[in-house]
Design a protein that fits this description.
The chain has six helices and four strands. With about 180 residues, it is an alpha+beta fold. It is globular and about 45 Å long. This is Trafficking protein particle complex subunit 6B.
């Protein structure tokens, strides 16, 4: 049996990492915080894909590697497969997770102590702040996906879309 870590510990570390980078280390520079969080995810994804593909032959094409990410890799990380995979057959793939585990525990407190926006003054600004805070939690998994695919020989860009929490779509664009 391999080494394992409790899911709650991983969840807590991810939440604390995002909080530390966004609130303490780079509170005035969210773009730097986002790049640092994504870079940590890249390293994690790179190393995990190395571990999970050690005894496998190299993938013959992009689709085969993406399917590996959706099934085996995702199952190792989240104990479930990606719910849906779409492609335009021109280098763009959309991985849909209808209940992304790292977003199920994310919450945002819109009190004036945590925000420069009063909830009573403009609710749309509170929603914008909440969406921005939630999106910071997606740089890490985007980095994991990019790192894993890069290790498999597929340079790409990965972005995330959250339109209906806790569902999340990861858009993978293969670089030519």
């Amino acid at each position: 049996m391999g080494r394992e870590v409790a899911e709650s510990c991983v969840d807590s570390v991810v939440i604390e990492m995002v909080s530390a980078y966004c609130s303490r280390l780079y509170s005035t520079h969210p773009e730097i915080a986002a790049r640092r969080i994504e870079a940590i995810g890249f390293q994690v994804g790179h190393q995990l894909s190395e571990r999970y593909t050690m005894e496998r032959p190299r993938f013959s094409d992009h689709l085969e590697a993406i399917k590996f990410i959706c099934k085996d890799f995702w199952s190792e990380l989240f104990k479930k497969q990606v719910d849906n995979l779409k492609t335009n057959h021109r280098g763009t793939f959309v991985l849909q997770d209808n209940r992304f585990r790292w977003l199920t525990r994310v919450s945002y407190d819109p009190t004036p102590a945590n925000s420069d926006v009063s909830p009573a003054s403009d609710p749309s600004q509170v929603v914008d702040k909440a969406a921005q805070a939630t999106s910071m939690h997606l740089y890490f998994p985007c980095g994991i996906i990019r790192g894993a695919l890069t290790n498999l020989g597929i340079p790409c860009a990965v972005s995330a879309d959250i339109s209906n929490l806790p569902a999340c779509s990861f858009v993978v664009r293969i670089k030519v």
